[in-house]
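In the previous chapter we treated chains in isolation. Here, by contrast, the input contains two separate entities that must be folded as one system, with a combined length of 226 residues.
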Amino acid sequence: AQRVTQPEKLLSVFKGAPVELKCNYSYSGSPELFWYVQYSRQRLQLLLRHISRESIKGFTADLNKGETSFHLKKPFAQEEDSAMYYCALIRGSTLGRLYFGRGTQLTVWP
Amino acid sequence: ETGVTQSPTHLIKTRGQQVTLRCSSQSGHNTVSWYQQALGQGPQFIFQYYREEENGRGNFPPRFSGLQFPNYSSELNVNALELDDSALYLCASSRLVGGGLTDTQYFGPGTRLTVL
């Protein structure tokens, strides 16, 4: 079975500080990993996916298969980064069935 | 390009009733997935439709059913509503690409269902 764990329900940092949102997964195969973000009063949207290896809004995430982690990082947090962040995975080729973690609410203080 | 839309925005029902939620997929997308998001939880996969057929189902009872229409829009039907069905229901559309994989899923704003 597959599982996505986000150990922090809430995370607060000050503007300009580094931020890391943790995500661990359990799945024996080769998953595809994603980070989705939901800003206040907006819909859930894709932030980044590991296969594209892009940096979006200054965020990066590296898939560590040894530690089964996909932590989201940003060196200098901004107030507009305050949002709910969800880590998710797709198992192999399962036609896009996303398995989500419970989410981490990030608050960036001025 | 039109995004994913869902209707209604909010809905209140009582136990035992039936409900139909609707989703219009994004232009060019042929796959629709439905998710249930309970308060304080991440979205949970209900099922997915491709070419008007159910194409994968999560751990939900048969009273959760769906349809996909030729224009790729979709409905989620829930019979015999229970209190625990109260949640935000999300629809996501995507495009099936080669090798049985789908491209990025784009989510709608959701329908908030309250069961009293």
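DSSP finds no helices and eleven strands in chain A. The longest strand of chain A covers residues 83-91. Compare these points with the single-chain example from earlier in the chapter.
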